[in-house]
């Protein structure tokens, strides 16, 4: 290079010519030649679009014409421009790993385990151990291009390469410390072992050791790696030199050659400066001084920068662009700048879309098993709610509320808890008051309301059966469950019979007959909607002479439930959702129907025969879709069919709902749905409604001499006029009322007595409304109750809790839950001890008790996964929460059998929020979870899938590759229940792959994940091509 000026004068002239040519042309024109008499009127062809410059060229207007020149990154004469492939040179665009050419520019990228240096070309090792210990259970060791997990003494690394398993001194070979395998030990026939290597390693000739290849961490080389018989051989990019360690690369410190003087000593100093400048400003010398890309042009060198960098004012240096400074990089939530690029991430409860910028709320309510009853999605989170009579525990579960555990349920005499409700009962010689709480003597019973009435009317119409089920009063709707509802009409005799057993001497003369029918609809979903059965609102009744069934009942309950998706047979798509509608009837017969020729038993048999006929007619009508439901004069559809044509009109609201703007909302307590105006109406005078989403209001109880009734919108019976208020009582619960005496209290309205404080305790004043108004000798803290006999605070027993001060009771835990210890202060301490999970042949999951709430103390769960023949098990642990503070007192272990000597696949006693996937080391798995009495945590929900053993090599290649867990995007896939379900669906039944279009696949998974899988699948299928 240094001899360029002295030995090649022709070259120097060639460099000078483009610069001198414009000067020569202008000075060569004799004076007066080629000049118009006046200044020419220039036309700006560039501004007016009259030029023919290429799309990738710049147009520069001149005095009489215009000039085209290709944009940086393109080459040509301006009217034709082609992209310069900066990667197509011996320096690979200056990139030490991969060079990616893009229109007008290029970008350097690094292999997995490396990150781009600040110069945008070099690649530096990523220390994976800095984040979450690399996901290693024990020790993480960083190496060039990768990392290794190592285990403490007495443990060995499991097949998933992250967790550690106790090593046995005796027992089966693969669990013994002397099995001899460098990486993975597999059982072989006759008790021997077979060794395997992790991805990127090859089994050595001794069939025990594993030899590193360039496929793992670039073979430990910073730049280039080449496999040889002796192992990976490292080399460096031409602009770098090898470090003494034989793996790292250092930038060369070659200084730019200085310009030498010409032999022509008589050249003026100015010519020397020009020549020196021109010699220096060529891409052939020191890259023209450019940080990145250099291009020789007619005006000298032109420097440019790759994508993600910007050229500085000196025209030479490139600086990384912090894209996050401008509009947050286009990221919806979080933006993290990286060298030459940036990464977007989302808040918890959101997922990053495939554009890798937008964040979308995760609709947890659309997933299976999110909430036991109803689920309400919120941006980034969700909440669960329970039906009336149930209490929420463990964040998502609902258990029956034991109302009797608090102040005897408010019952004056006997309280009996039932599932989803409770009832008060009275001793003999007493009958339940209208308020359903107090007991009054049988003589002088207050008038009761008219018994609810249900009718079933069936007959022939239009060549087939048609049935109408009509309910006029005593209606109760329950629609809290997703895609399910129930309608109760009337009062079940089971409640009345319990009452009558103790206070009705004629009970033996009454017989209750119960019957039910279930029929199936194949398409659609359960949805109770208003129906227009007949045109113009006409509702013709069935003519009496055509009626085949006409029955009256005391009680009816209609339930609609949708079955879950059922995986279809191999080669077939999954079946559509089926709906099951069940109608239960209760009918009473009594002594009044007995005749001389037919006693009560005979009457019962006749009635049962008549009901069987009614059920047959009802089933026929349902099969013809001619079963109609009518509540309080409102015609309803029991189910909504799947639409065959798109519906353009606005859908009507569901029953018990009114329209608020464009949304349907449940009618609040104190209102009802009138069925016509699609709005919620206030309960009229003399009625009340204490539940949401109902279509009637119940009549207020009335004294024998009715007084003034309260205004509309009574949302509780206490809002009905004339009732005694809390802290008051009277003989019938109506005014005139008396204040509760000292030493007594009453928290409810309409009561006939007050509760004593007990233990001779006084109250602070007359008209007390709670036990907290009683003057106790000590103030009890939460977790305790006041014993009125001993006048001491007693700890709440196990299975109960008390969150408030100064209470005389403890609340029973809901459903089947209990507490770990006594003295509990919160509902969160009530835990379900049952082991969770669903074990299927193809897919399933295991779940710690009470998940996602904290698991109970001193619990033990075991599960066994035994797949069908020729299938293997793949397990994904999205995250697991086990406290580390109690010296591994809580642990999860997966092995072949219950024997501690059997081959172990996985074991842990720590929290890992980083997901991991692995295959079972044995064909079946015995899984155990144990907790001690120490700390507790959320536990786990671990899904699994069984797959055809022919894919064993492919699956293991995927799950053992560190790139599966390298990025946050990949980790989020293994935590995304919808995506895991889709992956497992295809793994379990490969033919289901065709259910998903290519577009759907691209939209579900990030490009890097698809590239990883595609390379694995291609390599797996290559032998068969």
UniProtKB/TrEMBL annotation:
Domain CUB, residue spans: 835-947
Kindly state one GO CC term assigned in the UniProt record: extracellular space
Cysteines paired by S-S bonds = 365-375
- InterPro entries membership: cEGF, CUB_dom, EGF, EGF-like_Ca-bd_dom, EGF-type_Asp/Asn_hydroxyl_site, EGF_Ca-bd_CS, Growth_fac_rcpt_cys_sf, NELL2-like_EGF
Q: Where does this protein reside within or beyond the cell?
A: Cell surface; Secreted
Write down what this protein is called: Signal peptide, CUB and EGF-like domain-containing protein 2
Where does the chain cross the membrane?
Answer: none
Query: One Pfam family this chain carries?
Result: EGF_3
Instruction: Supply the SMART domains for this chain.
Output: CUB, EGF, EGF_CA, Ephrin_rec_like
* UniProt superkingdom: Eukaryota
Q: Which residues form a coiled coil?
A: none
Q: Which UniProt keywords apply?
A: Calcium, Developmental protein, Disulfide bond, EGF-like domain, Glycoprotein, Lipid-binding, Repeat, Secreted, Signal
Q: Where is the EGF-like domain?
A: 42-82, 125-161, 361-399
Q: CDD domains under this entry? A: CUB, EGF_CA
